[in-house]
Amino acid sequence: MPREGLEVENLHLWRGERHVLRGIGFALPRGGCLHVAGPNGSGKTSLLRTVCGLLYPESGRLLWDGRDVHQDLPAFHSTLIYIGHEAPLKADLSARENLRYWVGMRRRIGRGTLEATLQRVGAAAWSERPARTLSAGQRRRIALAALSLLWVPLWLLDEPTTNLDTEGQQLVGTLIEEHIARGGLVLAATHHELPLRRQVQRLELMHG
Amino acid sequence: MNWAWFHRLASPPHIYRLAQQLTPWFAWPAAALILTALYGGLVLAPPDYQQGDGFRIIYMHAPAAWMSLMVYTTMAVAAAVALIWRMKVAHAVAASCAPIGASFTFAALVTGSLWGEPMWGTWWEWDPRLTSELILLFLYLGYMGLRGAIDDPQRADRTSAVLAVVGIVNVPIIHYSVTWWNSLHQAPSVMRLGKPQLSMPMLWPLLLMLLGFTLFFVAVLLVRLRGEILVRERSASWIREVVGT
Amino acid sequence: MDDPRTPALPAAAAPALSGATTPHDAASVLDAALLVLERDLTLALRRRGQLVQPLAFFAIVTTLFPLAISPELARLREVAAGVLWVAALLASLLALEFLFRDDAYDGTLEQYALSGQPLTGLMFAKTAAHWLLTGLPLALMAPLAALSLGAPPGSVPGIVASVAVGTVALSLIGSIGAALTLGIRRSGVLLALLTLPLALPVLIFGARASELAIHGESYLAPLELLAALAVLGITLAPLASAAAVRISLE
Prior knowledge:
The structure holds three protein chains of three kinds. Helix content of chain A is 31%, strand content 25%. Chain A has six helices and nine strands, in the order βββαββαβαααβαββ. In chain A, the strands form two sheets. A five-stranded parallel beta sheet of chain A has the order 6-7-8-3-9, sandwiched between helices. In chain A, helix 4 crosses helix 5 and helix 5 runs parallel beside helix 6. By secondary structure, chain C is mainly α. Chain C starts with 28 loop residues before the first helix and ends with a helix. Chains in contact: A-B, A-C, B-C.
């Protein structure tokens, strides 16, 4: 009976000469959240990118719902969203246009849903301005909007609370908690603490 | 003992030792064949009725040109294997091939130019085969340039591997288009670098030379491959044992 | 400023998360490709200055030849096809540098690779946008350059056709080089060195087609060969570009 959720077994990854991931393993069930902690350079981003399939591990297994991820990467990709340090916004497009393209490539969204989400992340006032005029915190909020709109189970977040004020951090916490409550999975890498009301699974990465 | 290294690679220490053992088996026969072929071609073979002794450069030119293409094919096949099965040793093979192939190409161009000069009166004519060789040289230089421009060794390997595969697909297309282009503008009096009619006494040295060049290529490849492996594996533990002996 | 209240997402917008990995309103690859095309075109039109640069380059390069050779139209007509094509090739190369660069820097390319959509299709869409923004305008400008180099007016259809088809092949071949040189500092020259040998067949057939058009003869044979190259490019180039892009994301 295949286990649901994400399973990682004995992951080894080298970047050039550095042995970045040494036998990492964990199980993240549906409704679970894993906080990947560790100082800068400990491999948090590499771990997220390996789980996504952007980096190929030298050994180890990655299973999603019991199936090897590398057997059908596109199918796996359609179940996840990965947001790195920087939100992938085009400087010359407005926040709304950026969202429409980013999310629209994966899911057909109606105007109403888009507006409601912009409202929710507090972007209604500045959604028309070109992205190059936005602050780092505002750009992060657009990333959060994309998270809400893309209805996928697995969230891979790299430094989700960076550049956000207290309110923004609370929004991140609320979104994550709602997502978990719906049966979603969150893998968040950050050297800060996650703004969550309850304790979650924690994976501590040491320096290489 | 750091066993994890063996998971990564298709056993480079094994390949290293194998290359070390095999090299003399290719190097000595290569030398023998080349020397025999040289004697056969330069001394024994009769002069061509049309070109006189000038045709003898074919014994260097034709095998060099043939090898330039064969080495590129080897490089592209190694690159494809490396990409599909993620074998790092195959990347080392492709990297080792490139300078050898470029040298063969350069030799083919120089000997071709030397061959053509008495016939054409100039050191260069836009002969279709020589022009294709020149473009092949650019392909080699592009491959080596791309490798050199990327700092991360893994990325350099994989990116240049894609280029090698794209290149080999293009080589027949380029060759066809250059031949087509040349045929449009051919003045009938210009003598092309075609093969002169070769009788048996003239042919066997050529075939022998070709075989000799092939063995020579393998020998040099094995030597370069060991060098590549040493550089790539320099922090592995097995290196200390090998280099210490 | 920002709205401090955070109302919950409307329940109607929330189908079940567990179970199906593809929601019923998933975007198809065609939807995605069209969005990519639309985005690239929109972005380019917001920076019209940059858009014009390859075309201006093309114009300047064609001007160089009369100045360097001779103002006599009879002499220029002999080399017009070749000059035209070399200029078009170099102008296309200039525009290629920016095909993937911005997307690579701001993380858009990464999202494409993770979108679950076939990356090959998205590469094709980007290359199509590139052709619409560079190749097609070049094809429309080429007759002007040809006329200035002494070509007769009857040659215009042939020149437009050959440059239009040829630039399709050039955009595709060039996309491979652009993908391979992602992340390399000052990659312009390397991009040219990699792309030019691969683009030579296009140059040969295209220049021949234009040459025949200028002499009033049938240019169908080389045009068909150009079209064959373009078709080959459409089938193979996006595969190679996608592979190269994935490698650049590692």
